[in-house]
Design a protein that fits this description.
The protein has a domain at 44-84. Helices cover 81% and strands 0% of the residues. It is built from 3 helices and no strands. α1 (5-37) packs antiparallel against α2.
Length: 84
């Protein structure tokens, strides 16, 4: 553990941010997985819309890079268009 007061605070805030980022990333993966699993069904349109929204929100918060977001959306849409 650090001795410097500001570093102690930094450790705590980094832990909070990591926890928050982990939750956002987890939800992102879940939404994308749901969208992929419903390809071809009628609920797929809504699932894909929510997945893309989550990707955009994670990008806006700086949790994932914008190019990563673009790649994920592109791959998801490619699968959706091919599957149904």
């Amino acid at each position: 553990m650090a001795n410097i007061k500001s570093q102690k605070k930094r450790i705590l805030t980094n832990a909070k941010r990591a926890e928050r980022n982990k939750a956002v990333k987890s939800e992102l993966r879940t939404r994308v997985k749901t969208a992929k699993s419903t390809i071809g069904s009628d609920t797929n349109v809504e699932d894909v819309r929510v997945a893309v929204k989550r990707i955009d929100m994670a990008t806006a918060k700086g949790i994932i890079h914008k190019n990563t977001a673009a790649r994920r959306k592109s791959r998801l849409m490619k699968q959706v268009n091919a599957g149904g």
